[in-house]
Design brief:
The complex is a heterodimer of chains A (324) and B (567). Chain A has helices spanning 3-35, 43-75, 80-102, 200-222, 224-241, 251-283, 287-291, 293-312, 316-323, and strands at 125-127, 130-138, 141-148, 157-168, 171-176, 182-186, 188-189. With 324 residues, chain A is α+β, with helices and mostly antiparallel strands. Chain A has a seven-stranded antiparallel sheet, with no helix packed on it. The longest helix of chain A is centred in the first third of the chain and has 33 residues, at 3-35. The two termini of chain A are 23 Å apart. Chain B is α+β, with helices and mostly antiparallel strands. Chain B folds into three domains: 5-119 and 463-562, no CATH class; 193-318, no CATH class; 325-435, no CATH class. In chain B, 63% of the residues lie in helices and 11% in strands. Chain B has helices at 5-30, 42-56, 58-71, 86-142, 145-158, 163-179, 199-211, 215-228, 233-248, 257-275, 278-291, 296-312, 316-322, 427-435, 437-440, 445-455, 463-492, 502-507, 510-537, 539-562, and strands at 314-315, 328-337, 341-352, 358-369, 374-386, 389-391, 394-395, 407-411, 420-422. In chain B, strands 2, 3, 4, 5, 6, 8 and 9 form a seven-stranded antiparallel sheet that branches. In chain B, strands 1-7 form a two-stranded parallel ribbon. In chain B, a hairpin with a 5-residue loop joins strand 3 (341-352) and strand 4. The longest helix of chain B has 57 residues, at 86-142. The chains are: A alpha+beta (324), B alpha+beta (567). The interface between A and B is large, with 55 and 67 residues.
């Protein structure tokens, strides 16, 4: 099979792998951070959650797949324009169709909640700014409930012989007529959710990706045409960025440059969406222009990269022949 | 023919390590905060901080060096000569990586936690010194030179070489002397000053005072001899004789009425001390010391009474002096949990001193049965750790007021237990309860394992600790796997044309940055998998999952390395 015909299949293969990996990790993180108290991990949960995770990681997976495909194309070069058109077309189709198709499946059914999901006897659980420790729990009946209120006077501890526990919308309520009376309601702070917290640098990257993804998801439901344009701008910029793989004669540095650039695009999108667009909206009355500002910026940078590629860089084949 | 990769990688590794250490050292020096640390620890801080940063970022620095070296290692085979198989080129490198991984694990688990702990100590000592300096300044401004001298003395325990404070201490000392009061109430740490003398010498001194008919001194030295060696019957006999003489000696034998009254009060105070009323004796001897500071008997017995007070309580002013020092805050835990009852404790603040003393502030404890009926519930403003119990009775040193102790809101306990609380966790565990994850950084895996076994009994969730512990175990594997992967990546992306260009050299610092982002993502993925395994299925399952995952990653990385071409 000729190399250009291989490219779409290769891209789809890489996309499936990256999407599956990213979505699996997203599923684990989502379960640990928010769902682990409400339900145990099971195959049913994974099956229910996975489409939502795919929906959440689709944009990042497409970008990553474009980068990985770019590495392949650097080793097996095609004509500059053929490669550009192929990657742009496949990437765009994959992103748009992927998000369109997966969206109807991307929801997680609510499950019945019970206090036992949050309360473990002999373990402190934080609710708002207070801590609660229960001796035993059967159904909604909690016995020997110890409540620690750091602002309590004259005592911070209160022991309630029996209280009623209930959960609604993730909020845990403990109530008793007393003595002593108790009325406590809040979202339990699960002690283990902190273990899923990322380090500083990874968290910033994940934040940038979340902002971009949520904007795309919002556009998909609110303004379909703008969604298509935003997807095109992202894929266009990433495809144009592949020219960085030919900037120097040292492939390792080229890959590092591409890595920095892609990280930079996520940051740039976050900056534009969170800081620049609100400022722009005060100066420009047209909401369409404001909404499309990040996509416009991406498109402009992509065109610039494309021009640099055409004007200054040798074609991939010429470079490959030079290398050989 | 290509020579071994190892001989090419090692110089790069050494260069990258040296550059990284130098950069981190400069960074630590530049970012040194005189507000957070004492200026005297600047160099030690910079060295230790540089080492910790080096350990934190060792994986990206290492893999960047490996990738650069591998990508610059290729040589075109000589015409006609067969190229060596790549597996032979790389085999010694893999062995070297194993050795480096062992060294990394030893540094990460053996040295780094201790260095982190030392940095924490330096930070704590610096905060303490800052507070003591503030206290010294405030006392000096108010003209309370005795308090200023005390604060200066305690400051110099933390920062002994501080010349400014040495001068301030001299000023405070001379001003305190001019004020006429003793600079600091002479209270020994524990026991009479003669403890260290041998019993025979003490008995001989006691006999000397018997011959001089100085019964107070004779009693004192005989008592000290008996304390040093309880088998000395002669000491006990002298004690008994001196007590009898003191009891029989009429106060009126003294030359003036004042002396008679003083003698009588002294005898009463000694009687209180012997009856075990340490606090009453302390106040009595203190009053006598105020009347006649030069009386050696009173000075000695005041010390002894103070030492006796310290065995069951502590001085309020000592607790108040350290109240504003930095410490672990908002500590809540289960102190006891059995089939019939539970006991919970909260401490607003715990202050640890360099001397080893530990003070607690805002103590509250409640003991209740399985039905939720409270047996007792108290609050106490102050506490001091004495071995494995917290003493909560604080004695005012200057006024014979009732001791400040626990206030029982509900129920009570037997008198002997009323002002003490036996704590299950040690200070280290209390620090972890208060601060959580940051305190774990200065512990090695073995210590974390021990702590994990205790956390459950304190009413605290253990999952977070389990994940941190497992992540520590992952790090050496990550080091090895990423080393091999980056060797393969560097080789796959090797330069095949000419020498390294100037642009390449200029852009080289980008590599550690990109590889740092990659390695952080790799470790975050591990954290998610381990967190999921620990929370969903327990620590044992997590260990098994971890072992399988690392084996798979190792095999994949070795396969990728072996799959590289040498052409």
């Amino acid at each position: 099979m000729k190399e250009p015909w291989k490219v779409p299949f290769l891209f789809v293969f890489v996309l499936i792998l990256t999407t599956f990996t990213c979505a699996a990790l997203d599923t684990l993180a989502a379960w640990g951070l928010s769902d682990s108290a409400a339900r145990g991990f099971s195959l049913a949960y994974a099956v229910q959650r996975f489409p939502l995770s795919v929906y959440n990681v689709m944009a990042a997976s497409v970008v990553l797949s474009i980068v990985l495909l770019g590495l392949r194309l650097a080793r097996q070069p095609l004509s500059r324009f053929v490669a550009f058109i192929l990657v742009l077309g496949i990437g765009y189709l994959a992103l748009v169709n992927g998000m369109l198709w997966i969206r109807p499946l991307a929801s997680l059914p609510r499950i019945a909640e019970a206090p036992a999901q949050y309360i473990t006897p002999a373990r402190f659980v934080s609710i708002s700014d207070r801590m609660v420790l229960v001796r035993s729990l059967s159904g909604s009946r909690a016995r020997a409930v110890l409540v620690y209120d750091p602002a309590g006077t004259p005592a911070r501890f209160t022991v309630v012989p029996e209280a009623t526990a209930s959960v609604r919308g993730g909020d845990l309520t403990l109530a008793s007529d007393g003595p002593p009376p108790l009325s406590l309601r809040g979202t339990p702070d699960l002690s283990w959710s902190s273990v899923f917290a990322a380090d500083r640098f990874t968290e910033i990257l994940l934040r940038d990706i979340r902002v971009m993804t949520s904007d795309f998801q919002h556009l998909l439901t609110a303004a379909r045409a703008e969604f298509f344009a935003a997807c095109f701008a992202l894929v266009f910029l990433c495809t144009a960025s592949l020219m960085l793989l030919r900037v120097t004669r040292w492939p390792l540095i080229n890959v590092a440059l591409l890595g920095i650039a892609v990280r930079g695009w996520f940051w740039l999108y976050h900056y534009l969406a969170v800081s620049a667009v609100p400022a722009l909206s005060r100066a420009v009355a047209d909401s369409f222009v404001v909404r499309m500002a990040p996509a416009g910026a991406f498109l402009a940078i992509g065109v610039l990269f494309l021009l640099v590629d055409i004007i200054f860089l040798p074609s991939p084949r010429a470079r490959a022949e030079g290398v050989a | 023919m290509n020579r071994s990769l190892l001989s090419r990688i090692l110089p790069y590794l050494l260069a990258f390590y040296a550059l990284a250490l130098a950069a981190f050292f400069i960074y630590a020096l530049v970012t040194f905060s005189a507000a957070q640390f004492l200026p005297s620890v600047r160099w030690e801080y910079a060295l230790k901080r540089a080492f910790i940063l080096f350990m934190d970022y060792l994986i990206p620095v290492h893999v960047a060096a490996v990738a650069v070296a591998a990508s610059l290692s290729w040589e075109a085979p000589r015409p006609g000569a067969p190229a060596q198989p790549f597996s032979r080129v790389a085999s010694s490198t893999v062995v070297a990586f194993l050795v480096l991984t062992a060294a990394y694990a030893a540094l990460a688990e053996g040295v780094a936690p201790r260095v982190r702990a030392r940095l924490d100590e330096m930070r704590y000592a610096s905060k303490t010194a800052s507070e003591l300096r503030r206290q010294e300044d405030a006392a000096a401004r108010q003209g309370d030179w005795s308090a200023a001298l005390d604060a200066a003395n305690r400051y110099l325990e933390v920062d002994p070489g501080n010349r400014g404070m040495i001068e301030q201490r001299l000023t405070a000392k001379s001003n305190a002397a001019r004020q006429g009061a003793p600079a600091v109430t002479p209270v020994p740490a524990a026991g009479p000053a003669v403890d260290e003398a041998d019993a025979q010498a003490l008995v001989e001194r006691a006999r000397y005072y018997v011959s001089q008919q100085d019964w107070f001194s004779a009693h004192y030295y005989a008592q000290a001899a008996a304390a040093a060696d309880p088998r000395r019957r002669d000491a006990l006999e002298i004690m008994s004789e001196a007590s009898a003489k003191l009891a029989a000696q009429p106060a009126g034998q003294k030359s003036t009425p004042t002396e008679s009254q003083f003698f009588s009060l002294k005898r009463d105070a000694l009687d209180r001390l012997e009856r075990g009323d340490a606090i009453g004796a302390y106040y009595a001897f203190q009053a006598l010391h105020g009347q006649n500071p030069s009386d050696p008997d009173v000075a000695r017995y005041l010390d002894q009474a103070a030492a006796a007070v310290r065995r069951t309580s502590f001085f309020l002013d000592e607790a108040r002096k350290v109240e504003l020092l930095p410490g672990a805050q908002n500590i809540v835990f289960l102190n006891r949990w059995d089939a019939d009852s539970a006991e919970a404790v909260s401490v607003s603040k715990m202050v640890e001193l360099a001397s080893g003393d530990v003070y607690f502030f805002g103590i509250e404890a409640v003991h209740y049965d399985a039905a939720g009926a409270v047996a007792w519930h108290f609050t106490a403003p102050y506490g001091k750790r004495m071995e494995n119990v917290v003493l909560m009775s604080a004695v005012d040193r200057s006024a014979s007021a009732a001791p400040v102790g626990p206030v029982y809101l509900q129920g009570t306990r037997p008198p002997a237990e009323r002002a003490v609380l036996r704590l299950q966790p040690g200070e280290e565990e209390l620090r972890v309860i208060a601060s959580g994850r940051p305190a774990l950084a200065s512990m090695n895996v073995a210590e974390m394992w021990r702590l994990r076994n205790r956390l459950g009994s304190l009413g605290l969730a253990r999952q977070a600790l389990g994940v941190e512990m497992t992540m520590r175990l992952v790090m050496p594997f990550a080091f090895l796997v990423l080393s091999i992967l980056c060797t393969a990546m560097g080789w796959a992306l090797r330069i095949r044309t000419g020498r390294l260009s100037a642009a390449g050299v200029l852009l080289m610092p980008l590599l550690p940055v990109v590889l740092a982002l990659m390695s952080l993502l790799y470790l975050h993925a591990h954290r998610l998998i381990i967190g999921f395994a620990v929370i969903g299925f327990g620590l044992a399952t997590a260990f098994i999952a971890l072992a399988i995952l690392q084996a798979v990653l190792l095999v994949v990385s070795l396969a990728l390395l072996a799959g590289q071409s040498n052409r």
